[in-house]
Amino acid sequence: MKITKLLVANRGEIAVRIFRTCRRLGIETVAVYSDADRAAMHVREADEAVHIGAAPAAESYLRAEAILAAAAGTGANAIHPGYGFLSENAAFAEAVLAAGLAWVGPPPAAIRAMGPKDEAKRIAEESGVPVLPGYRGEAQDISTLTKAAEKVGYPLLIKAVAGGGGRGIRQVSRAADLAAELVSAVREAESSFGDGRVMLEKLVECPRHIEVQVFGDQHGNVVHLFERDCSLQRRRQKVIEEAPAPGMPEPVRKVMTDAAVKLAKAVGYQGAGTVEFIVDGSRPLAPDTFWFLEMNTRLQVEHPVTEAITGTDLVEWQLIAAAGGKLPLKQKDIKLTGHAFEARICAEDPSDSFRPGAGLILEFGLLEEPDGETLRWDAGFESGDRVPSNYDSMIAKLIVHAETRDAALERLTDVLAHTQLAGVPSNAGFLRRCALSETFASGTHHVNWIGENLGALAGVPDVHRAASLSAVATLLLDDEGAVSPWDLHDGFRLNSVPRRDVLLAADGEAEMVDPEAPLSDQTPFPLITDLSPRRFAVTTGGDTFLITIPEFSADADAALGGNVVKAPMPGKVLSVLAIAGNTVTRGETLAVLEAMKMEHALTAPRDGVVQAIHASAGQQVSDGDVLVMLVEE
Prior knowledge:
This protein is an alpha+beta fold. It is built from 18 helices and 36 strands.
């Protein structure tokens, strides 16, 4: 079947990225959107757009019947699922094919075989692919799981059978913690995947995460496009990925890629897929240091680094395979060139437990223009767009490519220093601090490394804040264009020494700023964007500050802020731990909120007594809703 019009059943940067390949190939495009995405970038990029429901994903992007109706109504003859949402839903793939449409993904049977982690591991074992010891049985009662845990041995991991994206995973170091962690993992798995089944797996205590990109067509051809290292993770979610894996000897690469191809052939795989391996990072890479983890039966978020080192367009390959064509290259013709990194740009605040943010983007982008080869920018948002609170916090991807790993890493840190995101929180500075670390530079980082060094990586350096304030003060005191002595900002005062201090506020915290105060020579130069006569967005080292000239007006909410616990974003209250009349201490968890696919503990802002509770478990709340009120003891 020739694909002439493609509907992308997804949103954000992946939809935009797919549309751009389609435009190059002359294929018409259809976007679908929820209430939250009416004015979204992916809607603007498509030739046509169809509304499919309310903001919650369950009422829009997960509604298979609405997506199929959109395809029928627009005359689309193919559907690409992107990643997430329905991308690994075998029933949806079958429905697409039954409707006579091309499915830009693997066969439903392959999705089913590789979907449940326990079944995938069984197939891997039968195919001769190494697998970690663990429990993958049907019995899910606490007695069976406790006995299985004793046999596996501690420490171990609890994993959701239908898991993905780091959800439904809990680490257990001792038997006493097993029951509580099982309850938590099952609850998250049921909430995220509608399937609370779990399995147990022996923990690799210094793990690396290396995956192999595989590709198959309808003619039995299966190839690999080398490996990616995704070991830099936060709470089991990838942060920066790279290709190829640092320190990978050619003999180990061959064993690993051969294993991945063998598994793909075992399930009759077609299209793009990723075979993930857990690697013992405590010793050098060797044929006996890796084990099969899972297979993702879709295009991965980090696919651009593979495209960079192989000179391919994997979305184009997907479209060719879905249309019944043969893969563009044979294995011997796929060459590895240079090194690439991808950094996931998220609207989240690393200094506040990575709290996701939503709202209007005031300024977003790079200081230099991407060329698409050495510097690539895959974004689903731009300045003036609104980030909704209903979906994942990732809003763009920064990809760099150079001849060597060192050169690519230097390029990455340079570009991140001036990646500006103002109006919503940004993780760009955090990403840069990770990339600048000696551990990451040497390629000796592992999956747990961020967690072990979170304080140093997540906190915003004082010198970045000081440099940003100083840059705005210098701008305001610039005397260029002065036409008389009265226009000069020279700090002249009668009967006293000159002063050139300026009162400014960075993210709401006001202070007097001396623009001539010395700053560190290592601080990157600030990037200033004038938002309005009283507001500036300033990015220093990837950390973006909203600098304002304060207005002297009372703020009643600020005065009350120490006595209330508010919802930081829209979401569902999972539990309320506060009890009216009880004494609480600063930092004590008073409620748990589920928002943007994550659980958020809401804590007491100070010591006090619970005066009133305005929320209950299961309640949907809006950004800023007061959940708990305190009074002084």
